[in-house]
Amino acid sequence: MSEAKGILYVVGIGPGAQDHATPAALKAIAESQLVVGYSTYIKLVRHLLEGKEIIKTGMTEEIGRARAAIERARDGATVSLISSGDAGVYGMAGLVFQVLKEMGWKRGDSPELRLVPGMTALNSCASLVGAPLVHDSCSISLSDLLTPWSVIERRIEAAASADFVIGLYNPASGRRTRQIVDTQAIIRRHREGNTPVALVKSAYRDMEQVILTDLDTFLDYEIGMLTTVIIGSSNTFMFEGYMVTPRGYTNKYSFDGAVLPGQRPGFSLVVPPASEVD
Ligand code: SAH
């Protein structure tokens, strides 16, 4: 091992196009001698990689990829390990810490860790359909490759019954098609069939596709590995082709800015008996 302390950047590159990667993410990649990532993400930033060493591996070789990045940085190199979106959201950051823990790494040891945030798929997909995340939302991955389906099912049920807007990551793949069907059935027990649903595929990439539909019919459309599904809450509405979840301003104020009778700005909403609130 060399004496020099290396740097490991764990970088979220955003959804795809460089305009949606942060300057800090691009700078980290520019500074790195080695860039490690799943081939699809390497392709998205290939124009930044001239003269750099690249390790790209398939989806199922994640542990090896994290280990290679860490070992090279530990030995003194500046390395970027890249994930799409944010590396800390269903990305490589968690695995990096697990490998470091297993290696007995301590703060102050080589490599120095630098976590660089990126725009998540849920954020970027939301921007393509309107403002669906303005009130409470959650994200659930439907991939049961590493998590038991019974756990995922329980989370869907909880999110649906608590009226969260739900962002579904990894909704389906060639082999995994049952999960999204079961998910629709669970959510439908708690929400109306006309609840707005957005299907966003390849946001800010070449094959971008946006479909606005509803809870009863969204399964009629193609849903795959590159799709994020956004299911509205009971308050989400469609307006001029946009999907909008209101924040509840109209519970307290009229549109001319006046405070409604019985309400006080800066204080908890007074809930009229049996009223419908956003
Ligand atoms: N770290 C990523 C998530 C990786 S999990 C992030 O923060 O966004 C992979 C899942 O993310 C895909 O199955 C899909 O549901 C979603 N996803 C990633 N990029 C996307 C894009 N450009 N458009 C739509 N969905 C995307």
TrEMBL record:
Documented EC number(s): 2.1.1.-
GO molecular function terms attached to this record: methyltransferase activity
Pathway this chain belongs to: Cofactor biosynthesis; adenosylcobalamin biosynthesis
Keywords annotated in UniProt: Cobalamin biosynthesis, Methyltransferase, S-adenosyl-L-methionine, Transferase
Single biological process term from Gene Ontology: cobalamin biosynthetic process
Domain Tetrapyrrole methylase: 8-217
Group of enzyme by EC: transferase
Keyword Secreted: no
SUPFAM superfamilies assigned: Tetrapyrrole methylase
NCBIfam families according to UniProt: cobJ_cbiH (TIGR01466)
PANTHER family linked: COBALT-FACTOR III C(17)-METHYLTRANSFERASE-RELATED (PTHR47036:SF1)
Protein's name in the database: Cobalt-precorrin-3B C(17)-methyltransferase
The species this protein was found in: Nitrospira lenta
Gene, per the UniProt record: cbiH
